[in-house]
Structures are given as structure tokens and as C-alpha cells.
Amino acid sequence: MTADHYAALGLSANASLSDIKKAFRQKASFYHPDKNDAPDAAQRFQAVQKAYEVLSDDGARQAYDDNRRRNLLDDPLQTAQEIWQTYFKSILPS
Asked: What InterPro entries does the annotation carry (predicted)?
């Protein structure tokens, strides 16, 4: 399953760079393993870091967005399921 970087940061695909930076700071602070003792905190922290790395770089974000659009066209049902699963994992407590 491909990571959904927007879901990791709790953002929509049309988020601005300032939205991305703000969401990254909030999520990174929340999931930092020194501050959060949840079993999956380190994994979520790494996902947030990776999402920021991709989405804050114009070229990497463009390539990521292009790939997301292509995947939606190639296998929309599977992609929709992955997006929803990622979304629900990000909003439901573990």
C-alpha cells in the first residue's frame, strides 16, 4: 500500500505550503516518540516526516500528485479503499 501523504498530515490535496508546514509541526509534535507513548507513535511520526519531505518540495509533490492521479485512473476501487483506510486510521484512536 502506498502512503497517502496528505492523509498523514490531515490535509486535502489542494493544501498550501503554509498549511503543510503548520500541519507538519502539529502532527510531528503530537506523534514525537518522546512525547507520545502510543505503540505506533514512532511509525506515525516517520510517516509525518516523509509526508512533509515530499509535499514541501515542489518537484517531489508534483511527481507524487501525478502518481496519485494515475493510480486513481488505473485502479480506482483499490485506490479509494486505500485512501479511506488511511483516513480512518488517522482519525480513529488506536
From this structure: DnaJ_domain (IPR001623), DnaJ_domain_CS (IPR018253), DnaJ_subfamily_B/C (IPR051100), J_dom_sf (IPR036869)
